[in-house]
Amino acid sequence: MTSHEEGDMMKPAENKICCETVTYMGEAGEVHDGAGSRTEAPAEVSSLIDHLTLIHIEVESNDPGLHSQENQACCSRNVMRKQKHWEKIIAAKKSKRRQEKERRKARQCEDANAGTDRHQHSKKFLKALTKERLLGAKDAGPRLCIDLSMTDHMSKKEMSRLAAQIGRLYGSNKKAAKPFWLNLTGFVENSLLYDECLRMNDGFVHYLVESTEASFLDLFPLETIVYLTPDSDHVLEDIDPTKVYILGGLVDESVQKKVTYQKAKHNGLQTARLPIQEYMVKKVNVKNFHSEILAINQVFDILRTYRETQSWPEALKAGVSPGKGFVLPGEIIPENESSFT
Ligand SMILES: C[S@@+](CC[C@H](N)C(=O)[O-])C[C@H]1O[C@@H](n2cnc3c(N)ncnc32)[C@H](O)[C@@H]1O
């Protein structure tokens, strides 16, 4: 035994715990044999090492051999344990994240379904309400009839514009709080106008209107009919729910004066024009253009607004576009002010 070994032997076993580290100074005969080679640590020491290792305490020995071997074993066991421990944590985290993701997805799916249901419900509900309102007008009146029997007065382009105006008029009636019951009379299926109506208006075949090839003259008692025409001598003062108001299905780019007026007079019908002159004033404009001839959808917007507001100024404002050269008296801008606008 070398002095060095002796010295080592004389040193008491010294366990130092510092930051989970125990330094074990080996005792005589415990770590070295006579030839100075390393022997196995005694059973108590091994068990202590195991014990300390189990409680995550690294054990060091002063014997470099024992130290390195035990340390290596400890380290690899610790590393493995730590690795397993981290793997477990990571796996748990992963599975938690996956579960959260699935839960989120399920919630989103539920919300989307609920939203679609709500949306579909409200869409269906609104459609049903509109239908109810439109059908209600069938009994309650008033009726509004578009006389489509004058297609020979129009070019193909004019017919196409008329078809678009019918679509706008229908759309406006659908939105009306107090709709009219609509009739399309003198309307021939498979005619050019019919095809244009199909082409220009989505869902035209499902329109809630009464459509017939027959003339309005054969459908309604003559005394209930009021033909609306810009050339009438009579002014429309109110809307009577017991009457049927007729609009001439005409788009006359090259104005054909008095076509509807003459037709009405010829059949002994009442006529009326909108009270444009009564409630509006001519606006000075460069072309000095003033026209009381409106498109059927504009006339309809005036009738619809009048029914809702009982106010002609408001109604006329809704349908007479500024291009017609008429404005409400309050809308006239004095010339010296208009130069600043
Ligand atoms: C473009 S206008 C056609 C005008 C055509 N020259 C005519 O003889 O009736 C289309 C239809 O809208 C209605 N309308 C247009 N302006 C009107 C007004 N100021 N008063 C009453 N009805 C009008 C009429 O029923 C008319 O037939």
Describe the structure.
The protein is of the alpha/beta class and 341 residues long. It is built from 11 helices and 11 strands. It has helices at 3-10, 43-54, 64-140, 156-175, 192-200, 216-219, 259-266, 276-279, 296-309, 312-319, 335-338, and strands at residues 17-18, 21-24, 58-61, 143-147, 181-185, 210-211, 225-228, 244-248, 270-272, 281-282, 326-327. The strands form 3 sheets. Strands 6-5-4-8-7-9 form a 6-stranded parallel beta sheet. The chain has a 3-stranded mixed beta sheet with strand order 1-2-3. Strands 10-11 form a two-stranded antiparallel ribbon. Strand 5 (181-185), helix 5 and strand 6 form a beta-alpha-beta unit. Helix 4 packs parallel to helix 9 and helix 9 runs antiparallel to helix 10. The N and C termini lie far apart (116 Å). Residues 1-39 have low confidence and may be disordered. Bound molecules: S-adenosylmethionine. S-adenosylmethionine is lined by residues 228-230, 247-248, 250-252, 255-260, 273-274, 276, 292-296, 299.
